[in-house]
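## tool: complex_structure
## caller: assistant
## args:
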Amino acid sequence: MITATLRIELPELTQDDLSRYSRHLILPEVGVEGQRKLKAASVLCVGTGGLGSPLALYLTAAGVGTLGLVDFDVVDASNLQRQIIHSTADIGRSKLDSAEEKLKALNPELKVQKHNTLLSSANALDILKDYDVVADGTDNFPTRYLVNDACVLLGKPNAYGSIFRFEGQASVFATKDGPCYRCLYPEPPPPGLVPSCAEGGVLGILPGLIGVIQATEAIKLILGIGEPLIGRLLLVDALKMRFRELKLCKNPECPVCGAHPTVTQLIDYQQFCGLEAASDVQKAVKNGIPQLSAKDLKRRMDAGENLFILDVREPFEYKIANIGGKLIPQNEVPQRLAEIDRDREIIVQCKSGGRSQRIAEFLKQSGFPNVANLAGGILAWSDEVDPTVPKY
Amino acid sequence: MTIFIPTPLRAYAAGKDAVEVNAATIAGALDELTLEYPDLRKHLFTNEGKVRAFVNIYLNDEDVRYMPAKEATEVSPTDTLSIIPSIAGGCQPRQWTQSRRRIAVAE
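## result:
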């Protein structure tokens, strides 16, 4: 069993603590000493979204003394389907501020350290070093690898959780004798293979299940009780409500945690994952495809240009909102090329610009001479041109 | 034997979450799977025919990579194969754009 770093002197419990945590105190596995360990402990929650919401709330409720929160985003209405630490009144507000307010309402004794930043190779070691346990609730592969590597380099256990649609994974990585994330996944998937939840969707309750599993693992690590998910990958299928477990082996040749590591400092994770960082200036052309803004599309439509708007979303999305494009769902495009007019300029459109970019590249490769992508998709159209077009 | 298909790859297996195959080895089972669902091949294997590094294959609860015979390991009808790809989970982050997207992407 692994325990987090013990403070030399554990803080005393106040009278309020004794009454608040009475249900912990009467558990032999926790008791007064365990509660003091929790009070002394610090956990870093990377992300205050779907996974971070239940994670931070339950760690706070359990009496963890200090929570670090890393996020740089603001609350959006589409978050509220699952990011339960935020509320409707918080839309537009910093997620860190929103989260801090709810956590301190739950437990005013909690110390909150907000890290309003994008976690990067430049700051990760400095941010992570002061915490006992890291709980990775991020939403992208570069940060997953960054957090993993930083945890291994610093010797911090990583309570890992990830979700996709209605499936989740959970484990504990980066303990001294256990595997790390790279032991399981030495390489990231190619960009675009695993859709974002904006494109693929996610069952709202799913991060609730997985986030609480992460919180449970963090608490077990702090208390030194139970059997943490070290060397074990828990797989959750929420639709079937099936839980399976696979064995995770520590890779002796792992470049980060193996016997002879070759990664001894943080690397360029965006490059590792085959991604480019967005610059502040919107790129006019991506992979040979001109990017058309919603405003420019509107202008050209009003000017009577003979554009062919190809909408590559799914039928249910078209029903929610559309701008009158020809609907051919992306997976059907290869078989229905004959329905797309090669003699006209094709403007490919989807929800946020991702799928349409891929289809635009495909059309170009298939010999269509004049193809552009609607940057930002129908969401950008709603923002910039016509707010009556529903966003979803 | 049963091969469990993970969510990101179900679009290439006619939407199925599990496929039954008859095979003597792990490699044989994966060959049968990709014979029945050819679109799966490029997601599971490199051009050289090796399992892609971000995909893990488990025989029951053991990682095939750490088995002595690896994909040549013999299997029985009651065994299961699980394909476990990496998932990051969550929404499109604002700070990254994606380059080099390919058409062969799950829906």
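## assistant note: Residues 90-107 of chain B have pLDDT under 50 and may be disordered. The radius of gyration of chain B is 15 Å. Handing back to user.
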